[in-house]
Amino acid sequence: MVSENENFIIAQAREGDRAALNALVSSHWPAIYRLALAKTSNPEDAQEIAQDTFLRALAALPRYKETNATFKTYLSRITLNLIIDHYRRRGRAPQVVDIADYNEPIIDPDSRPEEAVLNTERRQEVLCLLARLPDEQRQVIELRIVRGLAVADAARIMGKSGAAVKMLQQRALKKLKELFTEQGITGGEAGAGQY
Hints:
Blueprint: H1 4-14, H2 18-40, H3 43-59, H4 71-90, H5 113-131, H6 135-146, H7 151-158, H8 162-183, H9 188-193
Helix pairs in contact: 1-2, 2-3, 2-4, 3-4, 6-8, 7-8
GO molecular function, one term: DNA binding
Organism: Sporomusa termitida
GO biological process, one term: DNA-templated transcription initiation
């Protein structure tokens, strides 16, 4: 069932309220990205699909009709359609996935609401800063830190040696720390470590 608060945010977003639009994207981005990543196994494709999901959903927002399904379910359907299109363009069939697998809460239910908001905001800051890294640096951070892959697995995916992956990761973390400092974000290392 859709919460009244989310219906209010959707209504505000329909009227062009930028804060409401940002709230919708911030609250649903992690689950949509996870779904796309699980289906494509490619962080760049997953990010592109997640972005396209929100572009389509926000463009269609004036025509969005409230139902018993959540907004997250609506976004997940768009994502799955985009994933099918993605595989059609590449001539491969996607794996079958159950949307219910991606309905776990994004926010720890034991945390206080203000901590949850801060954690969500910090994740969005980190995602924005990650997007500013060069492609290979972003990919190594996503593979090693976000997905938690071993050096050997990341090296195989990237087509590099383990030593090259370690060096690339070191450079990426250094650059990420510089970006944190530029943005005046404190606790950059801790924020990056959450992934």
